[in-house]
Amino acid sequence: MMKGIRNIKGVENIRESFKTKQVKYGGYAALITLAVIVGLILINLMMGQFSLQADLTWSKLFSLSDQTMQVLETVKTPVKIYGLWKPGEESQDIMNVVNLYLSKNNNISLELVDPDRNPGFVVKYDKDKRGISRGSIIVEGAKGFRVIAPYDMYDFNYNQQTGARSVTGMAVERRITSALLFAGTGNTPVIYELTGHGETQIPYTFIELLERENFELKSINLMTAPVPSDVSIFVINDPNRDLTSDEADKLLDYLAKGGRLLVLADYRIEDLTNLNRVLASYGIGFDFGIVREVDPYFVAMDPRTEWPDLVDHDITRLLSDKSKTPAVLLEAMPLSELITKRRTVEVKPLMTSSSSAFLRTDLDETSFTRVAGEVSGPFTLGVAVTDPYWIDPGRPEPQARVVAIGSGNLVNIAISGFDANRDIFMNSITWLQDRPETISVRSKSLFVLPMRLQLVQIVIFGGLFIAVIPLSFFIAGFVTWLKRRHL
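Above: the chain sequence. Below: its structure as tokens.
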């Protein structure tokens, strides 16, 4: 019976088919595929035993910045973070960031508190008697505490026409890091903005931001008042008139004792005599006029709006790595480094224009192109100055610092949604405060803006994707066809 089965023609054909090259190679391919699948399953099972993660988001949504890591190294005493949530209502986005802090420093701990069941606990931290919203975070350390409201953990963009607002970024890290600094020191540096020269008042949104970053903002008119004893930084924001000689003398005396000054100014202040006298003592000066940009790579909207090239510095370093959210300067005024200055003074550029830009000093000129007598770029649009540039540990000599930027609209443009402008302002403030670890931690942007490419880059990438890559595939296919044809 078995012999009859063996002689059946169909069985013999099946048996013979397994001996063909097609089946043999197909079997090898199947075995290799099965081995790869089994290998991937085993790798996944092994990797599941580890907590290895990689943050692939361009804005590093799930990572802590280098500045925060520096702050965490200084946290040597217990810090408690209280999350005011009902059980099960925790915000996962916020908890993800908080857990990063817990994993990096064992002195930081977290406790979730239900505000409805513990009203007495919440009252203890309500200094202003305004109430603390559910979803808030309280950071408490040895020197004090800070309350972070839910709406402070996100950045918003307001549509002035519709009144609607949209979330543009996560600010959880910058709020918690600032709260850690305050909880560890209990000190609040005081910033004074000068008045009496038609300055643009720093908007309320920036006042709130300064408070969250552990600063207090006050106003002062130096024409009628002396330099206050508690001043940490003077800010001159978009003046329309020059300083008086007496004000310039007061500022020079303040800076000579290690003072700090931030100047944001443009062409609207035509008489620069006394302001430039203050700046000249530190090797810099404003050049009256408006920088008009020609290079399309540097033009934001029109020739009067500049996407400056950011030079490497503590103030701009993080921003230069995020070219997708560039700073924007409107009708910028350039600065020059003076040939004659003290050897102890060090001037570092922060922002520059393209070499194609030119300086227009005749504001009545309507030509879109450069005319005779107009100076061409590149121009320096922002500088940071230190004096002396070194600190001798044996001498308690304080270091004067000055930041000057040729854009009176820097802060106002930031309100329109340009986060880099806001960060340049805040980074300038914290750098002037001489705390490198407190350089403003950037919010994690949720926007991905279009890539900026220079003309040469457009040609290279265009040729690569339109000609080189398709031609390579064609040649490879043609060579393969020729080989098979001659088999």
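Residues 190-445 form a domain with the Rossmann fold fold (CATH 3.40.50).
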